[in-house]
Amino acid sequence: MVRLRGHHLLCLLTFVGEGYTPAFTRNYRRIAERLSAGEAIEIVAGPDDICAPMLDLPEAHCRNDDVGDRDEWALVAIAELLGFPLGPGSVLVLDGNRLANLRGAFAAGAIRAACHECEWSPLCTRIAREGFRDTLVHAAAEAIEERAPGKPSRPLR
Question: Which one Pfam family would you cite for this protein (predicted)?
């Protein structure tokens, strides 16, 4: 399962392979591949799998309070759009409908409160305006189901 903080649910919509450092970008590309293969996302509070290569760097902003605020704003907006609560411990999969819905709302500016003052916002705006061309996260080919031994399967949110 890919561990993501709230605002990274927005960032992944426009990820085209750019990042803070080569290690950060390599890691993010691997995460994009995992998500595109249908791996589930677990929402976490604080630094996540995308942050991992930055945590030992003095310029890392992953633990700053304002980043935590971005996480909260993103989760509120995305939960409202998707129609179910999201918070640490929530699990979801980016199927085709969900990814299209998120990208449509992102392009319309409906879920971008967390993007305020982000250094990547101009790039993300351009990528959305260009129809998310060249983004590296794609919808999983088929729905993934959560299964518990001896219990009927149920789709992940």
Answer: DUF1284
